[in-house]
């Protein structure tokens, strides 16, 4: 399963946004970034053998940044390899030591190699929500060239004229579009983990 692409956007909008238009990819990139920031993890597609580093919980349960853990293939705690066979884990990303031991309290103390995320079918509503955000963003008045503030200018080349502005306006448009699909995005959101 692949990441959402400009081709998906073109299909969703019945060609109104063309797959080969660079702005289509920019809209999608901003929508994905905002949706993932709201969910607190990537959601979809499935990432195989991705490495995540988390702060040690200090307690008996450790929450990995996922709601769909498919496999835990390796784990390192404070530089020591822990055999996955001595761990139990849930699909929601909770990991416990079978000996009921506690996790380190060190920041960035646990590194796990995991396969996680929802398939295209499992996350069909999330993917549809991101495409809907992208579509709505394209309909908002967002300046794409000219009339842009110099504060947003990140590159300027005088000879052969090349100007490049940041995508801060796209992020604002994505944040506005997020509200229209927040009921879907919220379902995939991780519960924040707080350590004292």
Outline of this structure?
With 196 residues, this protein is α+β, with helices and mostly antiparallel strands.
Could you walk me through the main structural features you see in this protein, from its secondary elements to its overall organization?
This protein has 196 residues and is an alpha+beta fold. It folds into two domains: 6-43 and 120-188, no CATH class; 47-116, no CATH class. 32% of the residues lie in helices and 23% in strands. It is built from four helices and nine strands. It has a four-stranded antiparallel beta sheet, with no helix packed on it. Strands 2-6-5 form a three-stranded antiparallel beta sheet, with no helix packed on it. A hairpin with a 4-residue loop joins strand 8 and strand 9 (162-165). The radius of gyration is 20 Å and the shape is elongated.
Essential attributes:
elongated; 4-stranded antiparallel sheet; alpha+beta; 3-stranded antiparallel sheet; 196 residues
> Radius of gyration over alpha carbons?
20 Å
**Helical proportion, percent range:** 25-40%
Task: List the secondary-structure elements in sequence, H or E.
Answer: HHEEEEEEEHEEH
Give the end-to-end Cα distance, rounded to a whole number of Å: 39 Å
Query: How many structural domains?
Result: 2
SS-based structural class? alpha+beta
Strand content: 15-25%
* Major sheet details: 4 strands, antiparallel
Overall pLDDT metric: 87
Approximate shape: elongated
Which strand order do you get reading across the main beta sheet?
1-7-3-4
Uncertain runs are 142-156, 162-166
The count of helical stretches stands at 4
User: How many strand segments?
Assistant: 9
């Amino acid at each position: 399963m692949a990441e959402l692409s400009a081709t998906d956007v073109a299909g969703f909008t019945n060609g109104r946004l063309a797959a080969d238009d660079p702005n289509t990819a920019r809209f999608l990139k901003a929508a994905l970034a905002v949706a993932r920031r709201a969910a607190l993890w990537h959601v979809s597609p499935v990432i195989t053998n991705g490495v995540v580093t988390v702060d040690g919980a200090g307690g008996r349960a450790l929450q990995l940044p996922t709601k769909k853990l498919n496999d835990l293939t390796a784990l390192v705690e404070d530089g020591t390899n822990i055999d996955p066979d001595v761990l139990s884990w849930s699909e929601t990303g909770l990991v416990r030591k079978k000996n009921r031991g506690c996790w380190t309290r060190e920041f960035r103390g646990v590194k796990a190699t995991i396969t996680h995320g929802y398939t295209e079918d499992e996350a069909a509503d999330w993917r549809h929500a991101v495409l809907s955000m992208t579509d709505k963003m394209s309909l908002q008045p967002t300046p794409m060239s000219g009339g842009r503030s110099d504060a947003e200018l990140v590159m300027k080349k005088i000879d052969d004229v090349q100007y490049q502005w940041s995508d801060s306006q796209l992020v604002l448009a994505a944040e506005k579009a997020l509200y229209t699909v927040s009921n879907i995005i919220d379902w995939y959101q991780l519960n924040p983990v707080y350590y004292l």
